[in-house]
Every structure is written in C-alpha cells, then in structure tokens.
C-alpha cells in the first residue's frame, strides 16, 4: 500500500471527533485553522466554540467591534491573528458578498491567509488538490523520507511543499490532508512518537537509521530578548467608597497592539521600590501618591516567541481624583493581554 493509502487508512480508524469536522463550510474551516495556528487543539477548541456561538456567520464577525473580537480571543496570544481574522471577515463581506473564494489562488489574496491555510480551506471545503504543509506534516515527511533540510529555510519550505504535492492522494484530498495532520499530531508526535505501532514503520527512513529524535531539522531561532515591564496601577477611592484605576490602549506595531494595559514603565533592568518612587511620574505625571505597594516581589516571566517579559505590578494609592479613571468593576470588559488578565483575577483591594 502507498504512503497516502496508509495515512488514509490510519485516519479513518483514528480520527478525533472535532467540532469543525462536522462541516465543510469555509467560514468554519477558516476560523478553526486561524485559531489552531500556534495553538493546540485542546486549547483552541473552546475558543472555536465561543466564536461560533458569538459570530455564527462571517457577516456577524465582520460587523463586530474589534474590541469584542480581541476580548473573545484573549488568552490565545499572537493577537495579530485576531486582527487579521476580523479584517478578512470584512473583506469577504464587502468584496466577496459574504462568500469565500472557492480556490487556493484567490484565497491567498485574503489577509492572514498563507499557503497552509489556503491549502486547507480549498482542499477540505472545495476538494481542490492542494497539499497542506504544517508543523505536523513537516515532521511526518521529514522522518518518513529521512529529509534533513531545515524546515524553516527557504530551500526546506519549497522542498517539502513539492514533496507533499507529490505524495498526496488527489482523489481523497479532503480526508488525506486532515489525515496526515492528525497522524503527525497523534502518531508521529514531536516527543515519544508511537513508532512501535506505526503503520509506516517498515519503510520509515528515520526509524531505520535511528534519526527519529533528530528530524525534522530546524535552523536556530532568533536570540531571545529580555524586557522589563513595570505596571504602575493607581488606585483611587471616591467618597462613596467606589474604587477606580487607569488603563491605556497599546498602539504601534509591537506586541499586543490595540489591547489595554495599566500605565507601563519599561526599564533596562528590574527596578526596586525606590527607583519606582523616583520614576513613576514618567507615566503618572498628574497623580500625587500616598503609598506605594509592591504586588509581586519576584518578577513574573512571560515568555513570547522572541522575547521574555519580566513583569512587576506596583500599586499606587492616591487620594487625588485623576482624569480618564475607570471603575475596577469595568476592568474585565476590556481586552487585555493574559499577563494583565491574570493580575486582575488575583488582585484584591
């Protein structure tokens, strides 16, 4: 039996029951694929279900406010995915009359849709013979065929796409593409793959040569950058004993664009209390402070793909009313990075 035939047989016996497998509607498939980029299925599935409940059609998503989309996305990370999701929904509604393009080439014109997502949508929804190549597929092909070309190199991307197109099953492309991705996620997993009971073990080059743990090959990542975030959180109590604070929206093209945060003082190293007292007016120049409190003695290290954030939260109590204050009760309505969301949950006045 051929490589693709074994993948299909395995898939038909082992495929998971997932909510987006009950449909070939391109909106649902597109939504699931965007959510599952950089996200495990177990983590992404509840988000998919919440999005479908809140925005059952691409029109509902297009008509939503960006803050509503970002709030629903909160915790998934890589927020550019959410912004692109919203932008693409508007394009589909305004330029395609609410109907997704039905082929790989046109799908590539949509924001946030690259080779992999276009291949997935066109094959699953429209039976177009386009091979998907994601992390799971790279791993299966690299191990089975014994390919040591780095998967994140220009040469590797081209080589594996060509190989994937060559070995795919064009007659059952919908199941084959889902099958090879599922196979990589469950059978040929990154760590502790199930080689002993693998239907491909008799002809897998990596298994025969003892290279399973070495493949696939990846070029070394960019050096991780350390950043030091000091969140300065003013707390004001009015005469009715209602508590207020201050938040601001992140702008620019950096991380967490358009999300909300407490006033941020970024430093070159971890700051101590006396340094915060000296520098807090850089972000709260209109507030007179009664008391400074260090919320977390040790910095919280929040790891992103190319940077590690060392975050500390400083509580600043004041008797002075200040502009643009917001009640503590309303904080949960704003889309914030998970780092801020965790603080809001933990903080008690």
TrEMBL record:
<dbReference type="InterPro" id="IPR003265">
    <property type="entry name" value="HhH-GPD_domain"/>
</dbReference>
<keyword id="KW-0408">Iron</keyword>
<dbReference type="InterPro" id="IPR023170">
    <property type="entry name" value="HhH_base_excis_C"/>
</dbReference>
<dbReference type="InterPro" id="IPR044298">
    <property type="entry name" value="MIG/MutY"/>
</dbReference>
<keyword id="KW-0326">Glycosidase</keyword>
<comment type="function">
    <text>Adenine glycosylase active on G-A mispairs. MutY also corrects error-prone DNA synthesis past GO lesions which are due to the oxidatively damaged form of guanine: 7,8-dihydro-8-oxoguanine (8-oxo-dGTP).</text>
</comment>
<dbReference type="GO" id="GO:0046872">
    <property type="term" value="F:metal ion binding"/>
</dbReference>
<dbReference type="InterPro" id="IPR011257">
    <property type="entry name" value="DNA_glycosylase"/>
</dbReference>
<protein>
    <recommendedName>
        <fullName>Adenine DNA glycosylase</fullName>
        <ecNumber>3.2.2.31</ecNumber>
    </recommendedName>
</protein>
<keyword id="KW-0411">Iron-sulfur</keyword>
<feature type="domain" description="HhH-GPD">
    <location>
        <begin position="35"/>
        <end position="186"/>
    </location>
</feature>
<dbReference type="Pfam" id="PF00730">
    <property type="entry name" value="HhH-GPD"/>
</dbReference>
<dbReference type="GO" id="GO:0000701">
    <property type="term" value="F:purine-specific mismatch base pair DNA N-glycosylase activity"/>
</dbReference>
<dbReference type="InterPro" id="IPR004035">
    <property type="entry name" value="Endouclease-III_FeS-bd_BS"/>
</dbReference>
<dbReference type="GO" id="GO:0006284">
    <property type="term" value="P:base-excision repair"/>
</dbReference>
<dbReference type="GO" id="GO:0035485">
    <property type="term" value="F:adenine/guanine mispair binding"/>
</dbReference>
<keyword id="KW-0234">DNA repair</keyword>
<dbReference type="Pfam" id="PF14815">
    <property type="entry name" value="NUDIX_4"/>
</dbReference>
<dbReference type="GO" id="GO:0051539">
    <property type="term" value="F:4 iron, 4 sulfur cluster binding"/>
</dbReference>
<dbReference type="GO" id="GO:0006298">
    <property type="term" value="P:mismatch repair"/>
</dbReference>
<dbReference type="Pfam" id="PF00633">
    <property type="entry name" value="HHH"/>
</dbReference>
<keyword id="KW-0479">Metal-binding</keyword>
<dbReference type="GO" id="GO:0032357">
    <property type="term" value="F:oxidized purine DNA binding"/>
</dbReference>
<comment type="similarity">
    <text>Belongs to the Nth/MutY family.</text>
</comment>
<dbReference type="InterPro" id="IPR000445">
    <property type="entry name" value="HhH_motif"/>
</dbReference>
<keyword id="KW-0378">Hydrolase</keyword>
<dbReference type="InterPro" id="IPR005760">
    <property type="entry name" value="A/G_AdeGlyc_MutY"/>
</dbReference>
<keyword id="KW-0004">4Fe-4S</keyword>
<dbReference type="GO" id="GO:0034039">
    <property type="term" value="F:8-oxo-7,8-dihydroguanine DNA N-glycosylase activity"/>
</dbReference>
<dbReference type="InterPro" id="IPR015797">
    <property type="entry name" value="NUDIX_hydrolase-like_dom_sf"/>
</dbReference>
<keyword id="KW-0227">DNA damage</keyword>
<dbReference type="InterPro" id="IPR029119">
    <property type="entry name" value="MutY_C"/>
</dbReference>
């Amino acid at each position: 039996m051929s490589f693709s035939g074994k993948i299909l047989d395995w898939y038909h016996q082992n495929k998971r029951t997932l909510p987006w497998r009950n449909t070939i509607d391109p909106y649902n498939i597109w939504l699931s694929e965007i959510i599952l980029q950089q996200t495990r299925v177990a983590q992404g599935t509840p988000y998919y279900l919440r999005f479908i409940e809140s925005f059952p059609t691409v029109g509902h998503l297009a008509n939503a406010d960006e803050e509503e989309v970002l709030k629903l996305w909160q915790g998934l990370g890589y927020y550019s995915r959410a912004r692109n999701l919203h932008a693409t929904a508007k394009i589909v509604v305004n330029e395609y009359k609410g109907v997704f393009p039905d082929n790989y080439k046109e799908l590539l014109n949509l924001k946030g849709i690259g080779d992999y997502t276009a291949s997935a949508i066109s094959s699953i929804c429209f039976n177009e013979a386009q091979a998907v190549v994601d992390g799971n597929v790279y791993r299966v092909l690299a191990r089975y065929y014994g390919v040591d070309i780095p998967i994140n190199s220009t040469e590797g991307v081209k080589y594996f796409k060509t190989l994937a197109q060559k070995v795919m099953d064009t007659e059952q492309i919908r199941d084959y593409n889902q099958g090879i991705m599922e196979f990589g996620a469950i059978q040929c997993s990154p760590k502790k793959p199930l080689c002993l009971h693998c239907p491909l073990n008799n002809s897998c080059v990596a298994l025969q040569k003892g290279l399973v743990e070495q493949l696939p090959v990846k070029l070394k990542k960019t050096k991780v950058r350390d950043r030091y975030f000091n969140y300065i959180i003013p707390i004001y109590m009015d005469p009715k004993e209602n508590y207020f604070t201050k938040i601001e929206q992140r702008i620019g093209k950096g991380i967490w664009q358009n999300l909300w945060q407490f006033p941020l003082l970024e430093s070159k190293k971890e700051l101590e209390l006396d340094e915060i007292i000296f520098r807090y007016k850089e972000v709260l120049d209109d507030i007179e402070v009664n008391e400074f409190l260090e919320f977390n003695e040790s910095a919280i290290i929040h790891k992103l793909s190319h940077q590690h954030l060392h975050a500390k939260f400083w509580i600043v109590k004041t008797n002075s009313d200040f502009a643009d204050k917001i009640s503590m009760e309303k904080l949960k309505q704003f889309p914030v990075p998970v780092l801020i969301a965790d603080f809001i949950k933990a903080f008690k006045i």
